[in-house]
Amino acid sequence: MKAFLTTEALRHREKSCKKPSVPLCLCGGFLLFLFSITALARDELHLYNWNNYISDETVVRFERSCNCKLVQDYYSDNEEMLAKLAAGASGYDLIVPTGNAVESLIKSGQLRPINKQLLPNLKNIDPAYLDTAFDPGNRYSVPYAYTITLIGYNAEKMRALNLPTDTWAVIFEPKYLKKLKGRVTVLDSQRELMAAALKYLGYSANDTDEAHWRRARDLIIRAKPYWAAFNASSYIKELTIGNIWLAHGYSNDMFQARQDAKNAGRPFTIAYATPKEGAVLALDSMVLHKTGPRPDLAHRFIDFMLVGKNSAELTNLIGSGNPNRDAMRHIDPAIAANRAVFPTPDIQRRLEMLMDLDRNQRRVLSRMWTEIKVR
Amino acid sequence: MNKERLTRWLTFGPPFIFMVVFFVLPAFIMVAASFRFPGEYGGLAPMFENGTWQFTLETYRFFFSDFIYTEIFLKSFFIAGLTTLICIALAYPLALLITRVPKRFRDVMVLLVVLPFASNFLIRVYAWMIILGPQSAFSTAVNSVVTAFGFEPVPLLFSPFAVIVGMVYVHLPFMVLPLYTNLEKHDPILLDAAQDLGANAWQRFWKVTWPLSLPGVYAGSALVFIPVLGMFAVPDILGGTGDILIGNLIKEQFLGTRDWPFGSTLSIMLTLAVLAIAALAMRYSRKSLSHA
Question: Cα dist. A184→A84, B134, B152 in Å?
Fold first, then answer.
C-alpha cells in the first residue's frame, strides 16, 4: 500500500514538473525519494532465498501478520550465494542455505545465533532433522525444507522395458542401461554423482577414502557410454517431453516434471523413487546473517514458517520434503503419500547429508571428475 | 601543442584506464592467486599465516603431473580450430555475396547477420536443443536418411556434433562482419584487370580476392577462435557426457571445486597458449608478407 502511494505521488510530481522550475522539482522529487526509502526501510525483512522457494500466499499472510514487507532476493545454488556473500553482499536478515553451506557460513563466522525462546513453534520440527552434524544443537539454523537426490523416470517406458526403479543399479549397471542407451541423464555435480555411486557400492556418501572414490569413479566411467549427458537443469524438460526416460536429479524437480507432463496431457507419467541403497538428503535451513538489521523480524519469520500450515504451502507448491510434523495434515494427500518425498523409516535411515570436503580432498575429487568427463 | 596533448589524453585515457583497471590488474591478481593455497571454504587461504608467507608452485605441479589437463587443452584447440574453419567456409561466400548485391539490399543483409544478437544468447542455444532433440523434424529427417542406408539412428543432441553446431551458430556473425568490411573495400577494377589479363573466375578469386582479404580472415579467426576456447555454456547445454572443454574445467574450479588457485593456473595456461599462437601467427604472416 505504502509503495503504491509513493509511486502515485511520484507520478503526480512528474506531471507537475513540466511547468515550474526543473531544479526545484528535481530537489523535491529527490527528497520524496529519500523520504520514501526511509519510510519503507522502517519495516522490511530481507530474505535471501532459493528461486521459487516460498508460496505467494505465505508471503502475503506473513506481511499482514507482521505489518512489514518481505523483500526477497534469489539464488539458484549455494555456491552462488556463498560467492555473493564472500564478495561483501550485506543486509540480508535471513538466508536459506543447504547443510554444508550452513557449515561454511558458521565456520567463517558469518551467522548470528538464534534465540530459541523466540521460536515456540520449533517443537513442530521432527527431531530427526534437528541436531545435525553441520550445526550440532541447532545454535544457528532452523530446518526449512528438504530435497532428496533420487531417480525420476518415465513410468510407462520403465515398465515396458521391465526395469527396476528402486535401485541405483539402473543408473550404473550396463545390463539395465543397454536398454536405455542415450535416454539417461545424471546430475552434473561431482558430489551428487559420486555420492550415488558410493551409496550403490555400499559406502557412505561422505566416504573420503581414495580407494573407494576410485571404485566409484570406475563404476561411473563404465556406465557413462550409456548416458546421454551430465545435466543440471534441463532434465526436467527432457523428461516431460519424453526424450529422456531416466534421470538422476532432485525430488523437487521430479515433482515439477511430473506436474508438467500431467498438465501437458502427455501419454505417460513421470514418477520418482528413492533408491533402496539410500541417497543424499539436502536439508535447507533458515539462518540469520550477521549483517541483517532486523533479527527481531527474522525470528518472527522463522516462527511463522514453523507453523504447519505455512510450511505445508511450500510442499504443496513445489513438492519439497517437509521436516515439520504439524505440516503433514495440511499437505496434499497425494504428496504426503509419496514415499520418495516422505520415505519409510527404513529408507530414511539410509539418507545422508553431504558434508563439506577439505581443500585437498576437493582437489583430488576434481581431478577424478575431470577424468570421468574426459574418458 | 598543449591542446593536442589534452585531446590525445582525452581520447586515449579512458579506454587505457579502463583496460588497466579491468584487465591488467585482474590479470596480475590471477597470477598471484595461482601461487596461493585455496581457502578451506572456498576463495583463497590467507597470504601470511603461521609466521610464513604462503606461496606454492603446487598448482603448476598438479597441472603437469597428469596428461589429462593437456589433453583437454588440445581438444579445446581442436574444437576451436574446427569451428573457425567452418565459420570461414560459411561466412566467406556470404560476405562476398553481400558486397556484390545492390547497395539497398546490402544494409538489410548486414542487419540480418546481426539480428540474432537481438535475442539472448542462451535462448538461441536452447533453441538448438529443440531443433536437435530426438523428436524434432530435423532429427527425424536426418535419421530417416541414416537408417535408409542401414545404419543405427544417431542422437544429434548431447553430442560433439551439437557442440560444433552451437559454436558455429553463435560465432558466425563475428566472422561475417570483418570479412564483409574487408571485401567491401576491394576495388572491382582489380578483378577487371585480372580478367583482361586472362584469369578465369577461380584464378581471379585465388590470386586477387583471397590474398587481399587475408586481414579480414585473420581478424575474423581471432574473433571466433579465442571466444570458442573459453566458451563453457555451449558444451554445458548441448554437449554429451564427454564434451568438456577448458572453459568448463575453469568454471568447475571456481564453482564446483572452489579451488581458485588451480582455476587461476588453468586460466593463465590458456592465456599463455593463446598468446603463443598469436605470436606464431604474426610471425608467419609477417614472413609471408615479406616474401610476397
Answer: 33, 13, 18
Q: What is the pLDDT of residue A17?
A: 41
Cross-chain residue pair A190–B135, CB shorter than 8 Å: no
How far apart CA B281 and CA A363 sit, in angstroms, is 35
Query: For residue B61, what pLDDT band results from cuts at 50, 70 and 90?
Result: very high
Which of B42, B66, B242 is facing A373, going by the closest CB pair? B242
Tell whether B127 lies on the interface with A, counting CB pairs under 8 A. Answer: no
- CATH number for the domain whose boundaries are B68-258: 1.10.3720.10
Q: Domain residues of chain B, as ranges? A: 68-258
- The ipTM is 0.85
Among A361, A217, A374, residue whose Cα is nearest residue B67: A374
Residues A232 and A241: beta-carbon distance below 8 Å: no
Instruction: Write down the pTM of the prediction.
Output: 0.84
| CB pair distance less than 8 Å for A373 and B258 | no
Q: Cβ contacts (< 8 Å) between B41 and chain A: which residues?
A: 82, 104, 107-108, 356
What pLDDT band is residue A15 in, cutting at 50, 70 and 90?
very low
CB-nearest partner of A370 from B155, B241, B249 = B249
Distance CA A256, CA B12 (A): 54
In a domain, A166, yes or no: yes
CA distance B282 to A51: 49
Residue A267 domain boundaries: 147-280+355-374
- In B, minimum Cα distance to A233 occurs at B237
Contact B182, B213 (CB under 8 A): yes
Cα B256 to Cα B264: distance, rounded to the nearest angstrom: 14
B260 touches chain A (CB under 8 A): no
Q: Dig out the grid coordinates for A214 from the structure.
A: 576410485
CATH of the domain at A101: 3.40.190.10
Query: For the segment B159-194, what is each residue's pLDDT rounded down to a tens digit?
Result: 999 999 999 999 999 999 999 999 999 998 999 999
Percent of chain A with pLDDT over 70: 89
| Range in A19-33, A248-262, B262-276 the model is least confident about | A19-33
